[in-house]
UniProtKB/TrEMBL annotation:
It comes from Paenibacillus bovis. GO terms for biological process: cellulose catabolic process. It is an enzyme of class 3 (hydrolase). Transmembrane segments: none annotated. This is Beta-glucosidase. SUPFAM superfamilies: (Trans)glycosidases.
Amino acid sequence: MTIFQFPKDFMWGTATAAYQIEGAYQEGGRGLSIWDTFAHTPGKVFDGHNGNIACDSYHRYEEDILLMKELGIQTYRFSVAWSRIIPDGDGEVNQEGIDFYHRLVDCLLDAGIVPFCTLYHWDLPQTLQDDGGWENRRTIDAFVKYAEVMFREFSGKIKFWLTFNEPWCIAFLSNLEGKHAPGNQDLQIALNVGHHLLVAHGHSVKLFRDMQLEGQIGIAPNVAWAVPYSKSPEDRAACDRNIEVYADWFLDPIYKCSYPDSLYEWFLQAGAQPPVQDGDMEIIAQPIDLLGINYYHPSVNRYHPEAGYLQSEEVDMGLFKTDIGWPIDATGLYDVLHYLQKYGNVDIYITENGACVNDGPVDGMVNDTLRTQYLQQHIAQVHRAINDGIQLKGYMAWSLMDNFEWAEGYKMRFGLIHVDFRTLERTPKESYYWYQNVVRNNWMETR
Ligand SMILES: N=NNCCOCCOc1ccc(-c2cn(C[C@@H]3NC[C@@H](O)[C@H]3O)nn2)cc1
């Protein structure tokens, strides 16, 4: 048996996002977001699922926080629905929305749980999208205004802030691959969106500093780890493009004040480039305090001329997969954490890591053994990376509970807690109790 002891100040947590759990989509003064529009559009989401009710956490957050308290976690990563705070995106502030998040944060603090707040987790106010959304630089100013409202209201209570969740999903998955809201399929639009969200990130970080707020601020990219199918230079280059589009495309501007040359040239060949204006790169490169890293699975890639915008084809190597079809190989997390050291030995929180395992309750129990095994393997790699001196400060399991998994709807379940979406009953799974043990002990044992 091996014992993995974690640093005494290591923060264990779970993560969720507003549109995926809150519901109450027309309550409390909330305005519509692009995900309401997208999910209400036939054919966009599995079986017509939407976030109208979701886990109803808008009303049930106290029950959820009690489950978190029993889990023993030190921190809870949640996101704020921009359209609850400013329903039309950049107009009047909605006090009911502010009050809801005060209730949520106060309940967390009363439970001894540190709030870890994501300002933008994909749910852009629809009125801003009607005016071009992230393609329009006006949205940058609207986001900074929203961030200022949040900083002013919550600075004493929230000390950990993330500006954007998974910029690759916001830019490329949502505006080139068209799989997420708003569903564009154009490379130039994707580069416009990616650049403008980075500028908005930079202005928000500068505002956070100028307001001399207590706490830390960063961003949470999802990162890919790809290994080449063969030793050919073409396959190596195809892997590099796949890794860089998730991490370097967003982290080079932040840490190096410039886009990565190789991918910049690749997009230029395709007739597209980020719409950089004077001063943009300098504002993007505001120093940040922490990196949130979301990791799920690695891939084996090879060059293929018809394999999408990167000409990088994922090869199925027959690894065991989770129920969403993602291969399981925890060493990818270790490898990508070392890859990220090129940005310096920065403070990193694993802000998302988890497995899609769709098992439901049998006699009141959910034996999601595969999720427990997945978590154990990945937490072991976190420990291995810490032993190498990588500044890993925390780990948040995705997700606290089953929720609206975007285009997959409620079909794909990532929760430590099972949700019956007919009754909204919560049932802790086997993995919840396993994770509870790790959190309480601050160590993990493996046989
Ligand atoms: N790369 N693929 N291109 C090929 C075409 O794939 C089409 C689909 O692609 C993807 C890629 C990635 C994801 C994804 C989902 N989560 C989980 C969420 N993270 C934030 C939180 O809200 C969780 O719900 N992380 N990543 C989904 C779909």
